[in-house]
User: Fold Fungal lipase-type domain-containing protein from Odontella aurita.
Amino acid sequence: PEVPDFGLVVVRGTTAKADIFADGQLWGAATLFQILRFFLPAGGVFTPILHQVIMFVTWLETKNIEKVSYYKEITEFIEYLEKSKNVTDIHLTGHSLGGGLALISGAQTKHIAVGLSAPNAKLSRGTFDPPFTIDDLNNFTFNIVPNRDPVARMDDVADLFQRIECTADANNFFSCHLAGRSMCEIMYTCGSGIRPTFCLCTEQYKYPEPLPRDGVNMTWSEVCKNF
Assistant:
């Protein structure tokens, strides 16, 4: 490999009903208090103490939350990699629930973690085992937050995040949570370098077709049909 000491841990996102339950258990308290803060007059003044209130509420549900604490397995795996010394430059990433778990384990182990449409962990940071600090989140985690994506707005974002546009219809906000749509938005906004964009960007999400390079006699549609 070009970078022999580099290791990338990829955490899968939500694929089953049990995963939705896990989302609710791990981030339910933070989301509830976000809603209360929004509706209460001058609700923002409670933000500095919300993490302590959420710690208490979560403590009451400790046994239930233990059943869905998948992040512990990820953190243990990262610690195993550290002890093996086969990889020293470890990064984590994931989408949706997987991204949220990556952010948690990244903050716990102090390794860089990048989430896509991931629930955040600023308010709930004290509920995880072991807990971590705001500095851990600010220094080691980064979340990509599509506009109108409800999952990426669970809990408060840390310092490092990037909002991106969502081209879905205004009343179809769950489509803003799709990883494919977000990857297309990133490619069309930031560029894809020497890599071509995905065919699904034009076929499913109605992004404009890329212009052919010099010497290419096929249209983008023709290229996608062949692949």
User: Anything to note?
Assistant: The CA atoms of residues 199 and 224 lie 6 Å apart. The beta strands are 6-11, 89-95, 112-116, 141-146, 161-164. Residues 6-170 form one domain.
